[in-house]
């Protein structure tokens, strides 16, 4: 039989042990369960809801919180045409999948089911901006004009907009020329409506050019917006280059870098010298009326002329052509007597006409004239590459 002191100690030890188990919790199964989260109704938000000048190309989104989207309808209130859109796999967000029209109002109705199983409907409206004017992105040369022949290695690509461009940087960001094989190139703004693209060097023969203007919905400034997008493809044909030398009064012809012919020529006389530099052929006519009044020298001026010429290829907008001129045959190969054109005899003029086309190059040296201005239709090659790059709005 234990002494009384030993019995008292055992009792105290047992009580302490029970207290320790009770404080630590152990695995007694007496814990309280975690509270169940409250299940909420869905909250639906519509981007730009109530906007009065929304961009027609910024996608509209409908998003659900605390639930899932069941259906979304976006309808033009005037035409009743429904806007295409897609719901993401998680059924949380609907996104419009096509551009909207200018100056149009759209009604959006979205249905969702909340985490609590209750249905929710959300309505909204969006009105897009109404332009004061819309600018079309016209292309030069027209793709149809060169669909069969392709373009020459000197051909710049020109977007001519039908309205002035104030925010040139915003527009230029939406323009592209993709060359295959890849070649370095850049844009140059001639003025507020004309922007040119040329490569650093002449195009490689056989190049394919994919040209795009993604300008629909772009703010050109002063209330003008892009009227539509445009994408076209050009093909660069064989390299044809003529080197006209005023000092020798002869022109060497090169096909894919190899000289194939030399022709006697007569260029502009001292009073009307031919411009220096690389000229690009922009038009060709088997028969053409040469009229100096088209560039400001009209009747009454001693230098005025009007004549019918054959085998004519335009090389600038300043009245310069390569063409047949029977009246200067005696001077061809010895002196320069024209009003600025490059004159050939009948045989050479016809041969040149048959082998050269849009985008091919005529390089003029030793003419005594000024350099062809960059703004003279295709004076693009008169600038160095550094000067050309400075004409970009994104420089």
Calculate the mean pLDDT score and round it: 91
Number of domains: 3
**Radius of gyration from CA coordinates:** 38 Å
CATH topology (level 3) name of the largest domain: L,D-transpeptidase catalytic domain-like
Task: Give a short account of the largest sheet.
Answer: 5 strands, mixed
Domain L,D-TPase catalytic: 240-365
Keywords: Acyltransferase, Cell membrane, Cell shape, Cell wall biogenesis/degradation, Lipoprotein, Membrane, Palmitate, Peptidoglycan synthesis, Signal, Transferase
Signal peptide: 1-21
GO molecular function, one term: peptidoglycan L,D-transpeptidase activity
How would you describe what is shown here?
The chain is mainly beta and 395 residues long. It has three domains: 85 residues, Immunoglobulin-like (Sandwich); 105 residues, Immunoglobulin-like; 146 residues, L,D-transpeptidase catalytic domain-like (Beta Barrel), CATH 2.40.440. The chain has four helices and 26 strands. The strands form seven sheets. Strands 20-19-18-26-21 form a five-stranded mixed sheet, with no helix packed on it. Strands 1-2-5-4 form a four-stranded antiparallel sheet, with no helix packed on it. The chain has a four-stranded antiparallel sheet with strand order 9-10-13-12, with no helix packed on it. A hairpin with a 5-residue loop joins strand 4 and strand 5. The radius of gyration is 38 Å and the shape is elongated. The chain starts with a helix and ends in a 6-residue tail after the last helix. The N terminus is likely disordered.
């Amino acid at each position: 039989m234990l002494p009384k002191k030993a019995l008292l100690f055992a009792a105290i030890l047992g009580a302490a042990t029970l207290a320790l188990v009770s404080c630590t919790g152990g695995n007694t199964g007496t814990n309280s369960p975690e509270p169940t989260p409250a299940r909420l109704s869905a909250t639906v938000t519509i981007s730009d809801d109530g906007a009065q000048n929304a961009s027609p190309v910024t996608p509209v989104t409908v998003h659900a919180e605390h639930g899932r989207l069941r259906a979304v309808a976006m309808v033009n209130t005037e035409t009743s045409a429904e806007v295409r859109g897609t719901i993401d796999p998680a059924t949380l967000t609907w996104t419009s999948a096509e551009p909207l029209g200018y100056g149009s109002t759209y009604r959006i109705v979205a249905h969702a089911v909340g985490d609590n199983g209750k249905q929710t409907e959300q309505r909204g409206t969006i009105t897009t901006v109404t332009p004061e004017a819309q600018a079309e992105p016209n292309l030069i040369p027209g793709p149809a004009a060169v669909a069969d022949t392709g373009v020459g290695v000197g051909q710049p690509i020109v977007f001519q907009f039908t309205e002035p461009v104030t925010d040139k940087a915003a527009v230029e960001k939406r323009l592209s020329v993709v060359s295959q094989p890849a070649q370095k190139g850049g844009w140059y703004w001639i003025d507020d409506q004309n922007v040119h693209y040329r490569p650093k060097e002449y195009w490689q023969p056989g190049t394919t050019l994919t040209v795009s203007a993604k300008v629909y919905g772009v703010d050109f400034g002063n209330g003008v917006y892009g009227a539509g997008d445009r994408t076209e493809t050009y093909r660069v044909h064989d390299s044809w280059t003529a080197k006209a030398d005023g000092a020798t009064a002869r022109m060497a012809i090169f096909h894919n870098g190899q000289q194939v012919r030399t022709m006697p020529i007569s260029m502009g006389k001292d009073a009307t010298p031919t411009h220096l530099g690389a000229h690009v052929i922009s038009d060709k006519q088997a028969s053409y009326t040469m009229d100096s009044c088209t560039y400001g020298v009209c009747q009454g001026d001693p230098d005025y002329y009007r004549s019918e010429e054959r085998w004519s290829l335009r090389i600038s907008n300043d009245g310069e052509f390569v063409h047949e001129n029977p009246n200067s045959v005696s001077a061809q190969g010895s002196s320069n007597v024209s009003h600025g054109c490059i004159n050939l005899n009948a045989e050479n003029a016809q041969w040149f006409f048959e082998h050269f086309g849009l985008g091919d190059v005529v390089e003029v040296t030793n003419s005594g004239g000024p350099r062809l201005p960059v703004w003279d239709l295709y004076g693009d090659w008169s600038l160095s590459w550094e000067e050309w790059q400075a004409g970009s709005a994104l420089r």
